[in-house]
UniProtKB/TrEMBL annotation:
<dbReference type="InterPro" id="IPR010122">
    <property type="entry name" value="HMG_CoA_synthase_euk"/>
</dbReference>
<dbReference type="InterPro" id="IPR013528">
    <property type="entry name" value="HMG_CoA_synth_N"/>
</dbReference>
<keyword id="KW-0152">Cholesterol biosynthesis</keyword>
<comment type="function">
    <text>Catalyzes the condensation of acetyl-CoA with acetoacetyl-CoA to form HMG-CoA.</text>
</comment>
<dbReference type="InterPro" id="IPR013746">
    <property type="entry name" value="HMG_CoA_synt_C_dom"/>
</dbReference>
<keyword id="KW-0753">Steroid metabolism</keyword>
<keyword id="KW-0007">Acetylation</keyword>
<feature type="binding site">
    <location>
        <position position="207"/>
    </location>
    <ligand>
        <name>CoA</name>
    </ligand>
</feature>
<comment type="subunit">
    <text>Homodimer.</text>
</comment>
<feature type="domain" description="Hydroxymethylglutaryl-coenzyme A synthase N-terminal">
    <location>
        <begin position="53"/>
        <end position="226"/>
    </location>
</feature>
<keyword id="KW-0597">Phosphoprotein</keyword>
<feature type="binding site">
    <location>
        <position position="309"/>
    </location>
    <ligand>
        <name>CoA</name>
    </ligand>
</feature>
<comment type="function">
    <text>Catalyzes the first irreversible step in ketogenesis, condensing acetyl-CoA to acetoacetyl-CoA to form HMG-CoA, which is converted by HMG-CoA reductase (HMGCR) into mevalonate.</text>
</comment>
<keyword id="KW-1207">Sterol metabolism</keyword>
<keyword id="KW-0496">Mitochondrion</keyword>
<keyword id="KW-0752">Steroid biosynthesis</keyword>
<dbReference type="InterPro" id="IPR000590">
    <property type="entry name" value="HMG_CoA_synt_AS"/>
</dbReference>
């Protein structure tokens, strides 16, 4: 690989453009995944000093946590008195997971981190960075990450960088980028980074409530990963807008402008896709490959998922982008057949066009079934998890294919957070799918996703409404023990044991 060029310190300011070839990180350190587990230490000292990037930085392991109870969306339609199919067909949702009063953002993250470390047989000392992406704020000062440090106490490891990152549903992606950048930086000490995304998505009674959900995802980041972050091809779009925001710090409920939020989502998708294509095409040109980047270059495409129907519309929108970027697109046959009337439309004028939406959803139906629909398995049954949403889609994808089927593929990822911040990037899947390989271990670790979903308890809409009212009434209540029973929690789940008169929260773990 090419050596990274770092600008040197020079005597004259104008000489700063001259670069010295030298590594940005200590080349004698490299993280290794041990055979059979991630146990003991992650560092091996090597004698070679050839400067290079850490190899294949990306996701080594994943863990998903979702609540132990859910409400059925068909039953919720009846309870809310809306037309049949409004939530199930119109939104594409089947079930919605939700938390009782015993769970908060801290307990969700404690649970998912504990599970990842235990299932991966990690040493707590092998983690050198831990960063949390969340928009579920229960304290304006104390970070969720600091609460997670109690898991490290017995190991004595307090040398753990990272802190919380917040911007609606984008914080998890920012944390993932930060973790990968840390591994590729001069600050890296050879240990793993841990990224935690968690949120509780709840809405006041009304049209938005069925788009809620809850959960957490933890990802282990380091070199030699089976899912590698492709370098240099991120497309990002950010702007100032009030589409979804939470100015009332005393409430869990957001303020939402639904039509505006969907428009912002589509605009961000258009901008990010254009930037991504430009960057990867430039890379290809330098390698002697002259071709446009289209949806066909992704074996899979996953999205942040507020609700599943929006994702289907989003894939159709990427097809629209490809169509408009190809002046010689064949409208007589193939995927663009019959779309000639849309040849000269402008992207910014199509956000609310039912004609464009319908035509391109129809044209992209097969691509959607192949590239995206498998990733919606968790979202359809658990709902919107906010920051973990797109990574729940990644876990769903990995859970439904074998390592051999995934090997060598490119997974496109679109992450969106209101307000707004959005990025498109891609993951390259390792070619090695043999038994015992990092890819095979990662896929195997997620194979129980459906079994775990099926083990949840279905709660009647009336009971669900009662629990939501308790959460609302006790959101910032001091000197209390959470109401209701904790017996329905999954074994191994962390929960709130008590909130004292100074609003200090004490947590305990349900026995396995």
């Amino acid at each position: 690989m090419k050596m990274f060029r770092l600008f040197s310190h020079t005597k004259c300011f104008f000489q700063a453009k001259r670069a010295l070839q030298r590594p940005l990180w200590p080349a004698q350190f490299t993280a290794v995944v041990q055979r059979g587990s991630f146990s003991t230490t992650s560092v091996r000292r090597q004698t070679e000093t050839v400067p290079s990037w850490p190899k294949d930085v990306g996701i080594l392991a994943m863990e998903v946590y979702f609540p132990s109870q859910y409400v059925d969306q068909t039953e919720l339609e009846k309870y809310d008195g809306v037309d049949a199919g409004k939530y199930t067909v119109g939104l594409g949702q089947k079930q919605m997971g939700f938390c009782s009063a015993h769970e908060d953002i801290n307990s969700l993250c404690l649970t998912v981190v504990q599970h990842l470390v235990e299932r991966s047989q990690l040493s707590w000392n092998s983690i050198g960075r831990l960063e949390v992406g969340t928009e579920t704020i229960i304290d304006k000062s104390k970070a969720v990450k600091t609460v997670l440090m109690q898991l490290f106490e017995d190991s004595g490891n307090t040398d753990v960088e990272g802190i919380d990152t917040t911007n609606a549903c984008y914080g998890g992606t920012a944390s993932l980028f930060n973790a990968a950048d840390w591994v590729e930086s001069s600050s890296w000490d050879g240990r793993y980074a841990l990224v935690v995304c968690g949120d509780i998505a709840v809405y006041a009674t009304g049209n938005a409530r069925p788009t809620g959900g809850a959960g957490a995802v933890a990802m282990l980041v380091g070199p030699n990963a089976p899912l590698t972050l492709e370098r240099g091809v991120r497309g990002t779009h950010m702007e100032h807008v009030y589409d979804f925001y939470k100015p009332d710090l005393a409430s869990e409920y957001p303020m939402v402008d639904g039509p505006l939020s969907i428009q912002c989502y589509f605009r961000a998708l258009d901008r990010c896709y254009a930037t991504y294509r430009n960057k990867i095409e430039n890379q290809w040109q330098k390698a002697g490959i002259n071709k446009p980047c289209t949806l066909e270059d992704f074996q899979f495409m996953i999205f942040h998922t507020p609700f599943c129907k929006l994702v289907q519309k989003s894939l159709a929108r990427m097809v629209l982008n490809d169509f408009l970027a190809s002046p010689s697109a064949n409208t007589e046959s193939g995927i663009y057949k019959g779309l000639q009337e849309f040849r000269n439309v402008k992207l910014e004028e199509t956000y609310s066009s039912k004609e464009v939406d319908k035509a391109f959803q129809k044209a992209s139906q097969e691509l959607f079934s192949q590239k995206t629909q498998p990733s919606l398995f968790l979202s359809a049954r658990n709902g919107n998890m906010y920051t973990p949403s797109v990574y729940g889609c990644l876990a769903s994808l990995l859970a439904q294919y074998s390592a051999q089927q995934l090997a060598g593929s490119r997974i496109g990822v679109f992450s969106y957070g209101s307000g707004l911040a959005a990025s498109m990037f891609s993951l390259k899947v390792s070619q090695n799918y043999e038994a015992g390989s990092p890819l095979e271990k990662l896929v195997s670790s997620l194979s129980d996703l459906e079994v775990r979903l099926n083990s949840r308890k279905c709660v009647a809409p009336e009971k669900f409404a009662e629990i939501m009212k308790v959460r609302e009434d006790t959101h910032h209540l001091v000197n209390h023990t959470p109401h209701g029973s904790k017996e329905d929690l999954f074994p191994g789940t962390w929960y709130i044991e008590q909130v004292d008169d100074k609003n200090r929260r004490k947590y305990a773990r349900k026995t396995l």
